[in-house]
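Pipeline run #58 for the internal structure catalog. This entry was flagged by the ingest filter as a single-chain record with no existing model, so it goes straight to prediction. Upstream metadata was stripped on purpose; only the residue string is passed forward. Reviewer on rotation: M.T. Logging verbosity set to normal.
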Amino acid sequence: MLKRKVKCQQGVCNESVNFRYNSSNEDNFSQATMFLNTLTAQQKKNLELNIAENLKGAAPFLQVNGTTT
């Protein structure tokens, strides 16, 4: 996606072009899986609680009620 941005400062305007990085061809899960596999059971529980605590303010339609297995 091409996005043009114009910055004006003290009456002088400069146009810059920003390109959006396309990550659709990348594996976005392997690194997270390898990290998770290095954690102990207690560290996994701490990570789970940390994520849940940070996501509790998310919009209700994004929240899932229930327990993890």
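catalog note: The beta strands are 2-9, 12-19.
catalog note: The chain has a mean pLDDT of 77.
status: ready for reviewer M.T.
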